[in-house]
């Protein structure tokens, strides 16, 4: 047996250790978010020593020092003398959930029991799960992550779909499938005050949160919430626009749902699918965005589906007689596919 050259072993070891280091970074960010350490640092542009952070955040000074050093090592913090300050743009990226590029919801989603722990438990049995079995922390994490998708869709994504902004501004009747905890429908209701909405979701707990979100947005009189599977929800030529965000891949019967949406739209009505663009080929999955999406596939597997490539949605809409079908990427983890009845 020939011995692999030392450099090759080191290179391969580096690939493993890079993953372990990433894990340390994720846990460090998660602690910083959960315990308000990043928030506290964001209030001090000149930074804080770890002792000052400990005092302000009410945590143990020794632990504060360990956390600060790890956050520095993972480039979440910079140092100015003895003080630690947030690295550039980390306030936006991790703390501002209205910033379209916000990624601060990801650690909570990835660390929730619902992703890897349940997968590991069910690995042998292959037992599947569903949204009603999800922990509240996971649903909250999904809500925060889903929020960034809507913050990219409204207004920037909407403006890129020909004619859609005009419809929203004129006052469309809008169907939202997968209303979830209701951030999207509330955001659309606030952005487009002439529109009326029907939000559909199969999960009662999420719809309860959605009702609160809609009320807070002052839009209860323009939003109807319906508990139903997408497969069972049918209406006849009622809506001008139908939107679904990060959920089309979850349809139990995607052909039926697409036919339902086609039937529910008025002639000329627009169907907008906002979703993760999973790579077409296995070879394309070795990028940072695709590695994160490969992680999301663990949860999707538990609910018996997988994220799909954008080209699947394009063919789906064409197969169901949608016209002017097109798609664009907003970010490497966010694509929009659209077509008209
Ligand atoms: C990933 S969450 C996204 C929620 C929301 N769009 C967001 O961005 O936060 C998916 C939601 O779709 C719902 N859902 C998935 N498949 C469904 C189906 N076939 N029928 C009804 N609801 C479904 C789930 O209950 C869950 O609330």
Give your account of this protein's structure.
There is one protein chain. The chain has 2 domains: 6-95, Winged helix-like DNA-binding domain superfamily/Winged helix DNA-binding domain (Arc Repressor Mutant, subunit A, Orthogonal Bundle), CATH 1.10.10; 116-340, 3-Layer(aba) Sandwich (Rossmann fold), CATH 3.40.50. Helix content is 48%, strand content 17%. It has 14 helices and 9 strands. The protein has helices spanning 6-34, 37-42, 50-57, 61-73, 90-95, 106-111, 116-122, 136-159, 164-170, 183-191, 204-216, 254-264, 288-302, 310-319; strands spanning 77-80, 83-86, 173-177, 196-201, 223-227, 239-245, 265-275, 323-331, 334-340. Helix 10 (183-191) runs parallel beside helix 11 (204-216). The longest helix has 29 residues, at 6-34. It starts with 5 loop residues before the first helix and ends with a strand. The mean pLDDT is 97. The structure holds S-adenosylmethionine. Residues 131, 142-143, 146, 149, 178, 180-181, 183-184, 201-203, 206, 229-231, 245-247, 250-252 line the site of S-adenosylmethionine.
